[in-house]
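Action item from last week, closing it out:
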Amino acid sequence: MSFEWNYGDILAAVETITPVEQTALVHGDRIINWGEFTARSNNLASKLLASGISPGDKIAFYMRNCPEYSEGIAAAFKASLVHVNVNYRYIEHELIYLIDNCDAKVVIYQSEFQHYVDQIKAQLPNVIHWLAVDEGKPSSYEDFVNDGDGSNPDVKHSPDDLLFLYTGGTTGMPKGVMWRHDDLYKVLGAGGNPRLNIPPCSDLSELLQRLSNAPRTVNLPLPPIMHGTGLLSAIGALANGGTCVTLPSRTFDAANALANIEKHKVTTMTIVGDAFARPIVEALDANPGKFDISSLNVISSSGVMWTRDVKAGLLRHNEELLLADGFS
């Protein structure tokens, strides 16, 4: 039988070989190293389990890109809770439908959405915890992540642990796609890369050996993490003991993305086709020599058109790039 994977086990193992001072999360001026990330996500997992939440319960994320989203994902994996993405563009009836449909027991939300939360809470009595996030400032979320000694929660993980990914509802109301951890990790390469003819890892020991002998990924997901492309990109960076860089701006700014690539030596970037790539090419063309993208090795796109002329434009500025265009 082949090795069976679980993201909670992967994170716990990767944390043992990742220097605590290495950067885990970057968001504007906020930088969280791996020691802090580990302790905060462990505390959140343990606090949830000690306060009425059980393995297998659902935890909904109602947030834009931010460090707390990545911390929450890690905590969910460690506590064997089921991640559920919530589109922050939804209004009251859509939010009520999704949170009720997934049977969420926990909702982590950004304080900017407090108005909507106030409108829907009474209609969602099964939610035990509503945790507000306020850019690292004092909040109910910070109370949870700062309560504890940072040690790993005592949870037996299973390859059957689930991650939910709700669709956008283009054929009626949103529908939850249910991924087993083992299936998801294997379809994403299991520590290998079929595009580069790198075979999957046979077990956790081989994964740790590979990671110990390779530079760590610095990943910049440009689409929202609450969509599948951005979500899997962020998860991939963390499962490899790397760095996840997110942008605080609410709208896409190509020049800001390029500046962050240079500043943080981003190695992989995730986009959604021409909507992101074309403005990046235009910014590079309009500012010769201004942005250094030599650190960038891979750009991955998913699900929409990424045209040949735009790809060629990117290669003009870094001919070593691997452009991965994914459809499924």
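Closing note: The two ends are 27 Å apart (CA to CA).
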